[in-house]
Design goal:
This protein is of the alpha/beta class. The protein has 14 helices and 13 strands. The strands form two sheets. It has a seven-stranded parallel beta sheet with strand order 9-8-7-12-10-13-11, sandwiched between helices. A six-stranded mixed beta sheet has the order 1-2-5-4-6-3, sandwiched between helices. It starts with a helix and ends in a 5-residue tail after the last helix. Belongs to the class IV-like SAM-binding methyltransferase superfamily. RNA methyltransferase TrmH family.
């Protein structure tokens, strides 16, 4: 047997090679098998023979929503930081301006936005049930991400979050589809906001403008961003019921108004007050005296501030089309607003208050003047209709 093994090794030894240690190493090298390359499991044959490759499963982080078959959403893994990052950026005015994105929160606001034609990009929700309250065809256009309610609570701007956040493309008023009821009740009444810097006040003013049936709202430079979360919350959906044109300079305001618009300003300076009466409170929502807006004196120089005829807000003044300017509580009306009103034959509209009482909040003043303007315009419209009726013979 040993002789047979030696003979076999001699046959394997290359010709002329010695049977020393080096020769033995050569034999071991010849005995090595080549490396076998393993194919993926799906391409290998099982012991039972070749099988068909299975269809690739959907990504493990994607699930099918139970609220609507065919509606896919991504389930965020624990510790996913995208929600905090995206929401933080969306709350930045600089980001909103540079990238054209806004943050909406809550069922009512998001539903109003979708129905008005706003384009959703990403929706974050805590339970699939939240999707049932939204139009399915619209939310399919967005990336849906399911996150924990605790994560939404951390980044929510609400005291009691609903578990629903949305990142939308910044709406373009010219491309929005406003509710039919809103369009049917729209009046030739416009609102111009001048230096409204408090988010809660601006949101309330926008809500009043939508309720009064304003044709549009113009925001001049110096007003707070209408897409700031606090403004959206106070507006209660008004952003998607009335066109809002923001960041206007006063030179471009006249081109944004309908032809023949008369511009009036809300004021708290009593026209019946005796000469020498102390000037209005510095916290008044709107003012027309040079002393009322000292921050504008240097920039306006000797141009001066025009005097406007004054009357009470409940007297006749609303002739279509008409625009009302509401000034901020801190800085009041700008001289540019007063000059625009004077150039159109506008008036100062006084809301009288009890002597000694500080001026009204700008949002309250806006509501009073706008709804009075609505009343006068509707009354005038009825009078015109009566004049068109045939006289009985």
């Amino acid at each position: 047997m040993a002789a047979l093994g030696r003979a076999w090794r001699a046959l394997l030894r290359p010709r002329g090679a010695r049977a020393g240690p080096a020769g033995r190493r050569g034999v071991r090298a010849l005995r090595r098998s080549p490396v076998r390359v393993l194919q993926p499991q799906s391409a290998r044959e099982s012991p039972r023979g070749p099988q068909e490759s299975p269809q690739p499963p959907p990504p493990p982080a994607v699930e099918r929503g139970a609220a609507a078959p065919g509606l896919w959403y991504e389930k965020a893994a624990p510790g996913d930081r995208r929600l905090g990052k995206v929401v933080t950026i969306a709350k930045s005015k600089k980001f909103r301006d540079n990238h054209g994105k806004v943050l909406l929160e809550g069922h009512r606001l998001i539903k109003d936005a979708l129905e008005a034609g706003a384009v959703p990009q990403t929706l974050f929700f805590s339970t699939v049930g939240h999707l049932k309250l939204l139009p399915e065809a619209e939310i399919k256009r967005a990336s849906l991400v399911k996150v924990k309610f605790e994560d939404i609570k951390i980044w929510s701007d609400l005291v009691t979050p609903q578990g629903l956040l949305g990142i939308f493309s910044k709406p373009d008023p010219a491309k929005m589809s406003y509710p039919a009821a809103q369009l049917a009740n729209s009046l030739p009444l416009l609102l111009i906001c001048d230096n409204i810097r408090d988010p809660g006040n601006l949101g309330t003013i926008l809500r009043s403008a939508a309720g009064a049936g304003c044709e549009k709202v113009l925001l001049t430079k110096g007003c707070v961003d209408p897409w700031e979360p606090k403004v959206l919350r106070a507006g209660m959906g008004a952003h998607f019921r009335v066109p809002i044109i923001a960041s206007l300079d006063w030179e471009s305001v006249p081109t944004t108004l309908p032809a023949g618009t008369q511009v009036c300003v809300a004021d708290n300076k009593d026209p019946d007050a005796a000469a020498g009466t102390a000037p209005a409170s510095p916290k008044a929502p709107v003012k027309s005296s040079p002393q009322a807006a000292p921050e504008h004196q240097d920039e306006e120089g000797a141009a001066g501030i025009p005097e406007l005829a004054a009357q009470h807000y409940y007297e006749d003044w609303a002739q279509a089309p008409v625009a009302v300017v509401i000034g901020g509580e801190t800085h009041g009306l700008s001289p540019a607003a007063l000059r625009l009103a004077a150039s159109t034959g506008g008036k100062r509209l006084l809301i009288p208050v009890v002597p000694g009482v500080d001026s009204l909040n700008s949002a309250i003043a806006a509501g009073i003047v706008l709804f009075e303007g609505k009343r006068q315009l509707l009354w005038r419209h009825k009078q015109d209709d009566r004049q068109k009726l045939p006289v009985p013979g």
